[in-house]
Every structure is written in structure tokens, then in C-alpha cells.
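Researcher: Next entry in the queue.
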Amino acid sequence: MFTTGFKFFFGLTIALTIGAVAYGYSTGGEHVGPVTLGWKGGVGDHVGYLVLIGGAFASACFAGIIVAFRDADPAAQSHYMGVETIAPTTPVTGSFWPVIGAFGGAVMVLGLVLGSAVFVLGLVICSLVAIEWTMDAWADLATGDAEANKALRDRIMAPFEIPVAGALGVAVMALAASRIFLNATKLGAVVWAGLIAVTIFGLGILYAARPKMNKNVIAGLVLAVGVAVIAGGIVTAVDGQRDFEHHGDDHGEEHGEDHSEEGEASE
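Model: Structure for this entry, 267 residues:
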């Protein structure tokens, strides 16, 4: 009986092989070259064909390994270990780090267009996500008790997470808000500043008034506000700053004109 993992990788192998053959013929493959790995004719674009065929070969290897070890099937494991049942493992906890990692990757892509500062910001986000996600995966398998795993993770990571998260959050929010203010009009900047301040103050009041509220709800609200401000900062940074009037130059020109008129009068 074929396992679920084998079916997936075997199907992926077939799809990549068909894609490689189609790509080979569409890029100048001759005779049966794409079908025979270049033995009887050309394969077209060598790089693309090699990538697809290499992926098919790797997928086939994974399929063979998985079906050989029965895809971590508990019945097969108990048979080879000589026991009746396998001790159940603690299920992994839910994580929001993949979402933040995807956001960091998007920021990095935008940074290739907007500038090095935005790219570095995305790189920092992805690096922090990699560390946090790794620690979550390690803590989930540390012991069989979910509460003990959470306490162990917090004891190791909390001394680093709290100050780093606070500093990074303040820096990112300040940068995003400054982009919004520089893009808006004079009155619009005041309105946006007041709206952001009222929102942050309202979240603080909500947390103080409902200390027993689910922390996931609070974290979701804070994350939603943060993402909204950062998204607004990115959009306004792309749009650019508003035109600023340089009053100093105007005053200088006026003073220059006055001096010239006085000189003509004295003559």
C-alpha cells in the first residue's frame, strides 16, 4: 500500500518530468533528446532542463525513502521496534511566524526597488523569524508536557525577545509614521498623527480594562495596527514626499531685491 507522502512525491516527480520534456521541446529540443536526457538529440535550454530534471530526480529519491520507511506509519514503527503501540507525541503548537516571515520577504522584495534601508529591514525581520521559529520547533519537542515546553522556551527567549521586540517595534513604527507624515499635507499630517496616537492609547486602555482578555486577541489587534501603519508607510514612501516650500530662499530674494533698490536710490 502506497503512503500519502509517497503519492505526493511520486506525483511531483511525474509533473517535473513532463515539465522538463515540454520545456526541452519548447526551447529547441531535437528528436527524442528531451526524453532520453540528451542521448538522442538536443534538450533545448540546458539550464532550465537540468533544473527540472534534477528536481524530478530529487523528488523520486524522497518518494523511495518515504515508502521504504512507511512514511512514519505508527503500525510499521511498532512492528520494527517490537512493541505493541507507539507512545503518542505532543502535537506542535500553532505559530504565526510563517505569516511574519512572508511579510518580511515581501519587504525585502520591495527594498530592491525602494532602497537599501527597506531591504535591510526585511532581512532583519526574516532573520528574527528564523530564530523564533526554530526555538518554537525545538520547544515543542523538548518534553511531553506542552506547558513545560512553553515555560522552557519563555525562560530562554524572553530576556532577548522583550527588549529586541520593543526597540524594533518603536523603530519600525516611527519610520513608517514619518513616511506617512512626509507624504500628507500639513493638516493631513496632524490628522494622521492624532489617529495613530488615539489608536495606540485605545489599545492600552483596552488592555488595562480587560487584563483577563485572551492574549491572542490583544496580539492580533496590535499586529493589525502595526501592519496597517507599516503598509501605509510603504505606500507613501513609494508615492514620495510632498512639495515643501522653502521660505528662506524667498526671504533672501526679497532682501536681495531691497538691497538692490536701496543701492539704485543712493546712486
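Model: The mean pLDDT is 77.
Researcher: Noted, moving on.
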